[in-house]
Amino acid sequence: MSPAVRAVFELAPYLAALAAGALLPRRSGWAERAALGLTAALALALVRGLWPGAAPAPAPSPALEWPHLLNVIVFLPLVGAAAILFLPRQSPTLLRRFTLGILVLDLVASLFLLRASPERGWHFQFIADWLPSFGIRYHVAIDGISLWLVLLTTFTTPIAAFVSFGSLKTRVKDLCFSFLLLQGGMLGAFVALDLFLFYVFWELMLVPMLLLIGVWGGVERIKAAYKFFLYTMAGSVLMLAAILYLVWSHREVAGYLTFDYLALSRLVLPKTAAWLCFGAFLLAFAIKVPMFPLHTWLPDAHVQAPTGGSILLAAVLLKLGTYGYLRFCMGMFGGPAWGAAATLASVAIFGGILYGALCAWKQDDIKRLVAYSSVAHLGFVMLGLFAGTRAGVEGAILVMINHGIATGALFLLVGVIYDRRHTRMVREFGGLARPMPIYTAVFVLVTMASIGVPGTNGFVGEFMVILGTFTSMTLGSNAQMQGVAAAFGVILAAVYMLSVVQKVFFGPVTNPKNAHLPDLSARETIALAPLVALIFVLGLFPRILTDRMHDSVDAVLERYREGRLAHQELPEHATTARLRDRRGGPLERGYPKSPEEREAEAAKLAAATAPASAPAAQGAPQ
Amino acid sequence: MNLLFGLSPFLAVGVGALLLMLAEAFGKPNVAPGVETTDAGAGRAGELALGAAVILVIGAVLSVAVWVAGPESLPELTQVAPHLVIDKFTLFFSFTLCVGGALAALLAGGYLPEHGIDRSEFFPLLLLSTVGAMALSAAGDLLTLFVALETMSLGVYSLIGLRRGSPRAAEAALKYFLLGSFAAAIMLFGLALLYGATGHTDLAGIGAAVRSIGSPGSTVSAGKILISLVLVLVGLAFKVSAVPFHQWTPDAYEGAPTPAATYMAVAVKSAAFAVLLRVLLVGFGDERLASWGAGWPPALAVLAVLSMTVANLVAGRQESVKRMLAYSSIAHAGYALVGVVAAMRSPEAVSAVAFYLLAYTVSTAGAFGALILCGSRGAEAVSYEDLAGVGKRHPAAALAFSLFLFSLAGLPPTAGFFGKLYVFRTAIDSGLYTLAILGLVNSVIGAYYYLRVMVYLYMREPAPGAPRAVTMRSGFVATALVAAAIFVLLLGMAPGFTLDMASGAALTAR
Amino acid sequence: MSELVQVYLPMFLVFAVGAAIVAVFWLGGHYLGPKNPNPEKLQPYECGNDSDGARGVRMSVKFYLTAILFVVFDIEAVFIYPWAVLFKGLGWTGFLTMLAFIAALLVALAYCWKKGALEWES
Question: Which residues sit opposite A365 in a β-bridge?
């Protein structure tokens, strides 16, 4: 078989998908059809490329991991944001194209992250000294968990930006700047392994999000912007205090300053200090998640934010809270996290899953409803993390990804009718299925994903979380009860989502204003298509995600258990911290070196080069 | 020769001040033809501002040069030693002061002509006052300390009153003058008592005498030392405007021309902190005085907490942005005082305070500069309402304003964040957890009113029919803002060299 | 705590004694002093003359200016006396230092002159 023929055979499925995507929709417009076809082909490529049995996993060789890839991914949007400042304000088209170009480029770059082997340990690690006198390093890396969150970010931001460019026509330059800066901050926070670096990116996200809410938001936008900013900042300054305390304790024990996560997570603090530091970190992350009773900023922020802002807020920003808990609270404070898990799990179930669902049920504003449903879904995520079982944590990560996709799509869909009617009240609508059939179909589909109907992506994660909760040792004797209570949350989700679908889409057209609403536009369809594709892809093939996270989740849980044991072994009234033993292995690749080790290494290097040059020097005269 | 090199930052600024005086008096007035003027400086704010800025930048560069050469390698400097102590601490502060002064001079170059304040004395006065401030940071002797303090203050008193027609400026100048002389008198009383009690005017000798208390044969009275300590602290707390000695600050800042307020906020405060650190650590560095149980740390801690909390709470309620910035400068004095308290245990805290003040200097000068850009003649931007919609009308000014406010609020990746991190880290190193947490919580309260400016800049539109501040354009102000912005970002993201400089600034006398 | 009180006690005592002395003199004068007011006594006192005219008579600023210039240059002269006494011991360093000082004074004088501070009529 000649290569050309083979290429045709290999390409055939993709071409078929392309054709199906392009021809099946009833709509006209070549751009729309082409984009849909491309989405279908890419979805197929994604499934085939990631399907674990499809091809032998690439051998884990460092040559495959270009060390600068993460730098490129993180700094591409930041440099883009800086470049935006120098582009002319008068040409919004150029600004939009430039921004989308950067974001798509970033997406493409981040796809290369998938070449990382699924083994435990850090991949694409890059370390550089930043402020040696403070022990601050630029240390970025991903593992099987942050990999997916990075991809989620690079995937949703272009969609959010694309949608926003359709509806927001004012101050485009500021908008582009905000999107790029936000993207850089979010990506940086997901990949940072130095606590200083993490904090910098964590705070860097605040400003563009503040602008998104405050400049392009609704009527009450300024109040919502204040609330968002001050809540988050209040949480994070206490986290900063805890970080500084950790760094100081580490120096007391180890003799040198470092902000590195790998080093600080070895620290076993005295019990009171450990609880206080855990509390500070928990506060920061619980506000971001948000967990009951700190969730009050979220509905305001969501309702006031423009569609693009809401998508990013729900899809990515909230995940930083859960990711932070997983990485930092469970990684560094195993003891307190274990001790508090049962109580916090109850809070997550009753305050998050059930209360959030009940609140959502009572909302008139569809966007507020979706916002409260986020509270409920993130309750599932936190529950899975608190459960501390492999199924629970993997389920939690799945829910994070799936919530990002489904809720992002829901906010997008709500934005669609808001753009047409400038209202989001349920009572204003009814019988939309008649004028907007495609919109209705997509909405119902996404609703199914959000509820967690089997076959869509929402099902797998929630199922795994409940399974993990049921079998959790951490949650103690109430685990089964809690599992059952969480399952009620799924039922409630169906209640509130389906009731709103029924009210808005079915029945007669009650409001004459709705009789002739245009259906989805090309821009909206193109933005929705990848999300809908992923709903099915991830719903049918969740192994794409889980196979790459098994090892990392195991590593996290191992560290969590070790942290708990070390905490429990510490005498009750110990006043000084101590360090756990080094375990070595891929999980400690890139461990910060003490000044003595650095000196020894430099001496060794000097010794290695000196003999090489010395004989040469001696040999020259002979 | 080495002596001259060691003193070159001071000489450059001092001689430069004299030359600028002559240039101002003997130049040709630059006025429209037909206008009679007897004032040779009329209409020449631009060139004089440039001259002042160049002189101060030379001073800053020379400070760095002497720092790099190492003052300890210049033995001739001991000739001036107790009067002017040239060490890395002094040089770091003189760098900060020169940078602050240069920024203020550039701002004045744009501000004075725009607002019709044709007083070219501003620039010689600014330079002379900076010489005083630099000498203050170097003062190791009570005599030079007081002379330098007055040299610095006299210039500032007149800078505030430059807008002669305005009753508000007169009120501000008079208020600052009266309260300032009062505080100086109190401090002078403390210094006199100190001399009487110890028989020394040099701080090192005083420190030794204080240490001898309690040892057999010592005639130094602990009571007198304590009273003088309190009096000196009151005098210096007034200069750094710590609560409850802050009452003059908002009025003075509001009445003064904005560049003069900038200079007061950055240079006067930094110099006062320098002398505060030196007096406390060298003169009162005895373990019994510099401890948590007794002595100055608890008193300063109370001042720090009061400054942060009161200023942040009051600042949120201001309607004038200038007053808000004044209260913000009080709050920042509180944060820096946390570092001064931490200096009792950790020598690194001195470097932290020095670094913090540099970060504060560039951020505050930038914020005042951006405020200048938001208004113009007859329509100076004063209240929050005036800032509404500037994000659209003058995007560059709004962007710069936001950057400096974020730095003041302590958000990464700006200088202010790193300064706060450094100060609070040393506080935690010294076991001052409560102070550190109070400081951090306060920075959230502070974020509220900085955010409020942002909200007005970007998220609100001016009320229809309301008088609107017209934004101005000025190369001088723009230059100052760009320089300050570079500093803010550089100190926030790559503070390596500055950190090294600051870490050399530890006071070694203890 | 007790240590703190002990250390600061002398200071508070000084404050207390100061306040007490002021209070004693002030209240003493108020309550103990004989008061026999008559119209003559209640008049404002002004050098034995009957008072008339505005309270704040404006003096020309020139007087202040001349006075301050006199003080400035007069005080500078005071510095030169001890220098002259020690002239031999100080040597060339002292001579150069004084030259620099006088140069600075000259600059100031030139400035005053050019700015018109020395002119009486203008």
Answer: A425
pLDDT of A56 higher than 50 = no
- Residue contact A244–B441, C-beta within 8 A: no
Q: Name the nearest CA neighbour of B93 among B361, B333, B480.
A: B361
d(Cα B27, Cα B35) in Å, to the nearest integer? 16
Q: Tell me the pTM.
A: 0.87
Interface residue A177 vs chain B (CB under 8 A): no
Distance CA B65, CA B4 (A): 13
Residue C55 lies in a domain: no
Q: How many CB atoms lie within 10 A of CB B302?
A: 15
Domain assignment of residue C22, yes or no: yes
Q: Could you tell me if residue C121 is inside a domain?
A: no
Q: Is C121 on the interface with B (CB under 8 A)?
A: no
Contacts of B503 in chain A (CB under 8 A): 133
Residue B382: pLDDT over 60: yes
**Banded pLDDT at B495 (limits 50, 70, 90):** confident
Q: What is the count of structural domains for chain C?
A: 2
Mean per-residue pLDDT, B156-180: 89
- How many C-beta neighbours within 10 Å does residue A509 have? 17
In this structure, are residues B364 and B96 in contact, taking their beta carbons and an 8 Å threshold? no
Q: Which of A174, A214, A237 sits opposite B444 (nearest CB)?
A: A237
Contact A160, A338 (CB under 8 A): no
pLDDT tens-digit series, residues B95-117 = 999 999 999 999 999 998 888 88
Interface test with A, best of B421, B434, B482 (most A CBs within 10 A): B421
Residues of C in contact with B25 (CB under 8 A): 110-111, 114-115
Q: Which residues of B touch A199 (CB under 8 A)?
A: 412
Ranking A310-324, B64-78, B396-410 by mean pLDDT, the lowest is B64-78
Q: Which residues pair with B379 in a beta bridge?
A: B376
pLDDT digits (tens, 9 = 90+) for A420-431: 888 888 888 888
Q: B291 vs B265, which has greater pLDDT?
A: B265
Residues C32 and C72 in one domain: no
Q: Do C4 and B298 touch (CB under 8 A)?
A: yes
- State the pLDDT confidence band at A515, using cuts at 50, 70 and 90: confident
Structure tokens at A186: 């979010």
Which range of residues forms the domain containing residue C100? 61-115
Same domain, yes or no: C65 and C33: no
Q: What value does the mean pLDDT take over residues B414-442?
A: 91
Neighbours of chain C (3+ CB pairs under 8 A): B
Residues C37 and C82 in one domain: no
Task: Kindly list the distances between the CA atom of residue A56 and the CA atoms of A64, A228, A320, A417, B419, in Å, as whole numbers in the listed order.
Answer: 15, 46, 33, 46, 52
pLDDT in tens, A221-254: 888 888 888 888 888 888 999 999 999 999 888 8
Tens digit of each residue's pLDDT (9 = 90 or more) over B59-97: 999 999 998 888 888 888 888 878 888 888 999 999 999
Q: What is the pLDDT of residue B325?
A: 92
- What part of A 60-89 touches B (C-beta under 8 Å)? 85, 89
Q: Nearest Cα to A182, choosing from A260, A99, A67? A: A99
First to last CA, chain A: 63
Between A and B, how many CB-CB pairs are < 8 A?
A: 87
User: Do residues C34 and C67 both lie within one domain?
Assistant: no
% of chain B at pLDDT higher than 70: 98
* Cβ within 8 Å, pair B412-A206: no
Q: For B153, phi and psi rounded to 5 degrees?
A: -70, -40
A255 in the Ramachandran plot: left (φ > 0), alpha (ψ -120 to 50) or beta? left
Closest CA to B380 of B472, B451, B261, B479: B472
Co-location of C28 and C74 in the same domain: no
> Which pLDDT score, from 0 to 100, does residue B10 have?
93
A452: nearest Cα among A492, A503, A482: A492
